[in-house]
Amino acid sequence: MKRDRFENWLRNIYETEEEEISCTECFDLVSRFVELEASGENAVAKMPQVKLHLNQCQACRDEYETLRELRRLEDEGGTPSLDDLQDLIR
Amino acid sequence: MSKTRTNEEWLYDLKASGTAQEAAIADLRNILLRAVLFLFSRNLGDFGGLARNEILQIAEDCAQEALIAVMNHLSDFRGDSKFTTWVYKFAINIALMTARRERWKGASLDQPSFSDNGAPFEWMMRDKSPELAPDQSAMQGEVREIIQEVIEHDLTDKQRRVLLMMVFNEVPMDEVVQRLGTNRNAIYKTLHDARRKLKNGLQARGFEVGEMLTLFSAQR
Question: What is the ipTM of this complex?
Answer without folding.
Answer: 0.94
